[in-house]
Amino acid sequence: MAETRGPWASELVDIVRAASGGLLFGIPLLYTMEVWWIGSYTDPWHMLVVLAVTFVAVTLLNRTSGFRDTKDIRLRDALADSVEALAIALVCVTLVLLLLREITSATPPQEALGKIVYESTPFAIGIALAHHFLRRGRDAGDDEDGDDEDGDDESGSDSQSPRRAGTINATLADVGATSIGAVFVAFNIAPTDEIPMLTAAMPPGWLIGVVAASLLVSYLIVFVAGFSNQEQRHTQEGVLQHPITETFACYVIALVAATFMLWFFQRAAVGDPWNAVLSNVVVLGLPASVGGAAGRLAV
Amino acid sequence: MTDAPKDATNDRGQPGRQARSTAEWVSFVISLLLVAAVVGMIAVQIPGEHGPPVPTVAQSGPVRAEGGSFFVPVEVANDGDATAQNVQVLATLTQSDGTETIADQVVDFLASGETEKLEFVFDTDPREGELEVTVNGYGVP
Fold first, then answer.
1. For the whole model, what pTM was predicted?
2. Which of A131-145, B22-36, B79-93 has the lowest mean pLDDT?
3. ipTM of the complex
4. What does each C-alpha distance from B106 to A38, A111, A193, B56, B116 come to in angstroms?
5. Which of A40, A143, A236, B75 has its CA 20 to 30 A from that of B46?
6. What average pLDDT score do residues A255-276 get?
């Protein structure tokens, strides 16, 4: 895939893949208040130690995996990619914390740095494992037994039935995978106090930004990061198989999964104010949509 | 710096790398500057003596009456160098007849230079008595 792109486009996809891997690995801790608190009182020496430890861990992982299509062989390449991984983690974590309003213009610099540094550690490790994550998707992972199906689809068969059945199967697989992935991630976050805490700190209208970020992240992970069967996904037929419609449909599924999780843990009930429930669902919908995107790549 | 292609063989299916492309060099340099900036921002906070936290509290606005209750906005700030934990804020309202009403709140964490907004709620009008807001104690994390 990378061979058909220019070096700049290839680098951009590598960075998107890195950010996506970081999100997949780091999103649960981004929703953990204890990590925010630890960041609030961490002294500068400790922050530097955390950064150094993260850098070493990421370098070791980059020797075997990394976030690029290429495998790092030389130590200097691993070191250079580790600097990039750390920078991408710092930027992405800052953006997510700004989106969640855990960092605002009123946050003192030392507190903001503490939160960013601590949250960057799992994020950077996720970046270093990005290529390992889900590099064999549904189709790529089933090479041996999937060839026949592909053959049916691509042979231009006389009958429309196999193609239609394939489209329906692909759609059903996406719906199922999105549901499982969204529930898997939301299950860890829905019962915690972080969701009402975060929604309470969000001004009116801020949720629109959370919705936009959820859709963007879901699209980037599945259709840009190049984790697995991305090219095939771009060409799949069916109403819900177009990248845009699939992204929106799977976001709706992630919201339904988030609602179910909140109800399951008695964090939402019939009779609760609808705007409070909606806020909680949208805020939980961000990690749920990340999980949903991962689910579509994993199944 | 070159846009040399990456070779396509590797035992794991990932092509090995020959040379970093211009694009990779550019993103590396930007990343290096960014990481250096963050390390620099952390490092400048190290020198000097670091004193304890100094949480202070003051009424930050006029009393607001709504639904038979009276709301008093206050701001608690940390003017010290260290973070304070479990900052306990007390508001004591003394009526003209000597009756005291005490309300309290706790701020989980208050970093150096941070300000938190709180509201105390009383059943009687604080403007007709004497209201005192104080920090009653805190922990050091």
1. 0.82
2. A131-145
3. 0.82
4. 18, 19, 17, 13, 11
5. B75
6. 92
B15 touches chain A (CB under 8 A): yes
Is the same domain home to B74 and B91?
yes
- Note the helical H segments in chain A: 7-30, 33-41, 44-64, 75-99, 109-128, 143-154, 161-189, 194-200, 206-219, 230-235, 243-264, 274-298
In which band, very low, low, confident or very high, does the pLDDT at A150 lie, cut at 50, 70 and 90?
very low
Residue B21: give the domain boundaries: 9-46
Distances A190 to A35, A97, A175, B27, B102 between C-alpha atoms, Å: 17, 18, 21, 37, 36
What is the total count of domains within chain B?
A: 2
Strand order in the sheet with B130-139: B100-110, B84-94, B130-139
- Shared-domain flag, residues B74 and B30: no
Q: Do B23 and A11 touch (CB under 8 A)?
A: yes
Measure B34 CA to nearest chain A CA, in Å: 6
User: B38, B117, B119: which to substitute to probe chain A, counting the most A Cβ within 10 Å?
Assistant: B38
**Do B69 and B135 belong together in one domain?**
yes
Residues 6+ apart with CB under 8 A from A89: A22, A26, A54, A120, A121, A123, A124, A127
Chain A neighbors of B41, CB-CB under 8 A: 109, 113
For A15-37, the pLDDT digits (tens) are: 988 998 899 889 999 999 999 99
Nearest residue in chain A measured CA to CA from B79: A108
Interface residue A136 vs chain B (CB under 8 A): no
Quick one: pLDDT at residue B123?
Answer: 92
Enter the tokens of residue B75: 């701001």
So where are chain A's domains?
2-132, 162-298
Interface test with A, best of B32, B35, B85, B106 (most A CBs within 10 A): B35
Distance CA B109, CA B139 (A): 9
